[in-house]
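Sample entry follows:

_____
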Amino acid sequence: MGWGLALLAVRPVAFWGAVVLPLVYLPALYGVGAVGYRPLLLELLALHVASILLGHGHSPFWTRS
């Protein structure tokens, strides 16, 4: 019960995070020539993958019947 409730709370945030995170890639890619930005880009990619996996089952309220 605890995991289901936690997933129910996290899933919408993860879904919308997966939608919005690609907008952050452009500024991060712009600075990729600098050595300091490479770990940031890898962290963004890992966060995006985690958001996709966690938010996969979410259906926004306007798509529910």
